[in-house]
Amino acid sequence: MNLSPGQLDTLFQALGDPTRRAILERLARGPATVTELAGPFDMALPSFLGHVRRLEGAGLVETSKQGRTRTVKLVPGAFTPVRSWLDEQRALWEGRLDRLDDYLTRLMKERADGS
Amino acid sequence: MNLSPGQLDTLFQALGDPTRRAILERLARGPATVTELAGPFDMALPSFLGHVRRLEGAGLVETSKQGRTRTVKLVPGAFTPVRSWLDEQRALWEGRLDRLDDYLTRLMKERADGS
Fold first, then answer.
1. Whether residue B52 is found in the same domain as residue B18
2. Which parts of the sequence belong to the HTH arsR-type domain (chains A, B) (predicted)?
3. Which of A29, A75, B31, B83 gives 20 to 30 Å between its CA and that of A111?
4. A12 interface with B at CB cutoff 8 Å
5. A85 touching chain B per CB within 8 A
6. B88 is in which domain, residue-wise?
7. What is the number of structural domains in chain B?
8. CA B96 to mean position of chain CA atoms
């Protein structure tokens, strides 16, 4: 995947807030209006809208307006860059453990042969 | 997993910086001294150490000192809470798509029966 470091920064930073993660958790169950989304939060609407806009800026949600109602929905595949980065880290780590395992096996074999 | 929202905040925020992600990518290949780690970065040492401390605070790396040398290594399983959260989101999303699929199948069957 061709991804600028800035995109990963924006994604991880967007996820580093409990309100924004709660919004995403709600939207994973289906789209919602801003009013529905804001309901459970004890927060002024402008602050709440700031969180929605931050998620929109990170490409995690999309919003659309019909009349006076703004609907928010999750962007399919928006978590993919984050997952890919984590998968790469796991692959590097497991590759390292495999090499360590090979090394220890060889070492034990050499010792057994030498004894 | 029993995880406070604050822990996820700290983890995601720690990952939202290119220098800190690069440190983690390097450490996935094996432990390194602070001097080795800092090498590729055009950054004053105190700023660089700030990033290492931030990763340590999030529980992503461990450091140990022998003489004047500080070694940094990845904490095994440190990404697990982040992965778990992403997996939960995927499960919610896929559950939603499954229900939508069931609904559409039932709707089409009802229409076919009715025609």
1. yes
2. 1-94
3. B31
4. yes
5. yes
6. 79-115
7. 2
8. 25
Looking at the complex, does the CB of residue A109 fall below 8 Å from at least one CB of chain B?
Answer: no
Q: Per residue in B60-112, pLDDT tens?
A: 999 999 999 999 999 988 999 999 999 999 888 887 777 777 878 888 888 88
CB–CB of A5 and B18 under 8 A?
yes
Cβ contacts of B12 on chain A, cutoff 8 Å:
12-13, 15-17
Do both A36 and A48 map to the same domain? yes
Q: Is the pTM of this model over 0.90?
A: no
Helices (H), chain B: 5-15, 18-27, 34-38, 45-57, 80-114
Residues forming beta bridges with residue B32, ordered by sequence position = B72
- Contact call for residues B114 and B96 (beta carbons, < 8 A): no
What the block records as the tokens of B68 is: 């004047």
Structure tokens at B79: 């990404």
